[in-house]
Specification:
There is one protein chain. This protein is an alpha/beta fold. A hairpin with a 2-residue loop joins strand 1 and strand 2. Helix 13 packs across helix 14 and helix 15 packs parallel to helix 16. The model has no long low-confidence stretch (mean pLDDT 88).
Length: 534
């Protein structure tokens, strides 16, 4: 399969077996979504064929295709034979009784049989169970899809893909827009699923928890590994290391043989020289193909540390109309703490960050200072220089003709071109990528450019709102390591289990209008929550 002039993969033969759960792995741009589109028949391969079951559960990406339908009906449409039977049945039942023919009666009998076989009599309750598990409130089930926000629509479309017990599920980024509770529910659901699952995700913990096999796109082919994402990385590294070691041994042997050939080629040992030449030909190593994996390097430094108590706030409250999001929350943050904000989408995590950032000292855009709160006091401590990663990149990077390099340069006019390009190179902006206009940047490129800004500014207090969105697994892993090594203070909103588990030293958990302040890492928080529940 080609994308423009670039070859993604060729001569690939794969079989995905029932009862197995496959991750499709590879960096951004490797061809994961292209492969998924080929499997779902949304894209034709350049050559070759795909054999599919008659019924597929597919996570659709078009959020606007079902705007005129009820949420509950959108989910039921995931079972196409059932939905078609229900629609035809309703048309026939809408006819006046006297207009019904014998043929209509026979057809109604057939349709009722299809509805029964496909679980139509419990369809609405089954769909509601899926929606509840994915965090779509019951109050929204009867609403039109067009009335929902983007994140809510994605959850409904995920429920649609799961509905109908299809023998194959094909899910492209199912954990996007899901909070951790919904991700855990989805993990449990998929681990019980008996068909074949093929999934793309940038959530490492999700892939390790769910997947039994990994189809890795690299070296212009697809290689199948047993196990989850971490198992694949280990096996792939071991295989490449072994091949490199074998090649090194061969090169050494070839060098010894060539020395013999050069020494005796003009002498009387011609038969031995000929033998050695054949041996050299046999041992010749082919150049090891270059992997498409690109690993960014993130390192957050500080110009100087902050005071011992960088942030304190009392009685903080924020409402949107009658909806009270934050109710009189009080907390004090010590230098070096790394606090993860957790909870359902819409619980108030971003609202709390915006409420704090409006008066922050450091590298804060003027637009962030316009956010109004109901009441409360926020005090930033001595020497604090805060750096902010906003959830909406449009708040930070104005889309226009300004190049990525020029955008970065404005935050340190004294920085040299070499320094700026060095930073951008660390974040995988190579060559002309640095000259790309900001309007042409993808979500992942925008995120990496904001990380360049934070590394350039060297703040001592990082406030990161969903920084892992749009990042591939290698970039998320680099961010995880960088945050663990960072000596400053961190406020972090993310739904990435591994980042929370390995970075956070304290948890603020949002639920039902209340924020629980747990002073300890995520593992201890989970143990405490389980103890309270039992």
């Amino acid at each position: 399969m080609r994308f423009g002039a670039r070859l993604l993969f060729e001569d690939v033969t794969c079989t995905f077996l029932a009862g197995r759960r496959y991750a499709i792995s590879g960096p951004n741009g490797a061809g994961k979504s292209t492969l998924m589109k080929i499997l779902t028949a949304d894209l034709e391969p350049s050559k070759g064929s795909v054999t599919r079951p008659k019924k597929l559960g597919v996570l659709r990406q078009d959020q606007f295709a079902f705007d005129e339908f009820r949420v509950i009906d959108t989910v039921i449409m995931g079972n196409a034979p059932l939905w078609k039977a229900l629609e035809e049945r309703d048309i026939l039942y809408a006819k006046p009784h006297d207009d019904l023919t014998d043929e209509d009666g026979m057809r109604l009998g057939e349709l009722e049989g299809t509805v029964g076989e496909e679980g139509g009599y419990t369809a609405e309750s089954d769909a509601a169970v899926l929606l509840d598990g994915l965090g779509v409130d019951a109050a929204l089930h009867e609403r039109k899809m067009g009335e929902l926000q983007g994140g809510q629509k994605v959850r409904v479309l995920l429920a649609q893909a799961l509905f109908g017990s299809a023998p194959a599920l094909l899910l492209d980024e199912p954990t996007n827009h899901l909070d951790l509770d919904s991700v855990h529910w989805l993990q449990d659901y998929l681990c019980r699923y008996e068909g074949v699952l093929i999934v793309i995700s940038h959530d490492r913990h999700f892939l390790n928890s769910v997947c039994t096999h990994t189809a890795d796109i690299d070296y212009q082919t697809i290689i199948m590994y047993t196990g989850g994402y971490d198992d694949m990385v280990m096996a792939k590294t071991q295989i490449r290391s072994r091949i490199e070691a074998e090649n090194a041994q061969r090169e050494k042997k070839i060098e010894q043989l060539n020395e013999f050939i050069a020494r005796f080629s003009a002498g009387t040992r011609s038969s031995q020289v000929t033998s050695r030449k054949k041996e050299v030909e046999r041992l010749q190593t082919s150049e090891l193909a270059r992997s498409n994996i690109a690993r960014p390097y993130i390192r957050f430094q500080m110009k100087q540390p902050s005071g011992r108590h960088p942030l304190e706030f009392k009685g903080l409250a924020k409402s949107y109309g009658d909806l009270k999001v934050i109710r009189n929350f009080t907390a004090s943050v010590s230098r070096g703490e790394k606090i993860a904000l957790m909870g359902r989408n819409g619980a108030g995590k971003t609202t709390l960050l915006k409420s704090l950032m409006r008066t922050a000292t450091g590298y804060i855009d003027d637009s962030e200072r316009q956010f109004a709160i109901d009441h409360g006091t926020v005090t930033w401590g001595h020497g604090v220089a805060a750096g902010y990663f906003a959830q909406d990149h449009g708040d930070s990077i104005v889309k226009g003709s300004t190049t990525a390099l020029e955008w970065l340069h404005q935050f340190d006019p004294m920085a040299s071109q070499e320094e700026l390009r060095g930073l951008m190179g660390q974040m995988l902006f190579s060559g002309d990528d640095a000259l790309k206009p900001t309007r042409a940047l993808s979500g992942g490129e925008s995120a990496r450019l904001i990380f360049c800004r934070l590394m350039l500014q060297k703040p001592n207090f990082l406030v990161l709102d969903e920084p892992t969105n749009h990042l591939d697994l290698e970039s998320i892993n680099a961010l995880n390591i960088a945050l663990q090594k960072y000596a400053g203070t961190v406020l972090l909103v993310t739904h990435d289990y591994d980042v929370i588990d390995e970075v956070a030293t304290r948890i603020w958990h949002f639920e039902g209008g209340h924020i629980e302040d747990f002073k300890g890492p995520y593992s201890e928080y989970l143990a405490s929550a389980e103890a309270k529940a039992s």
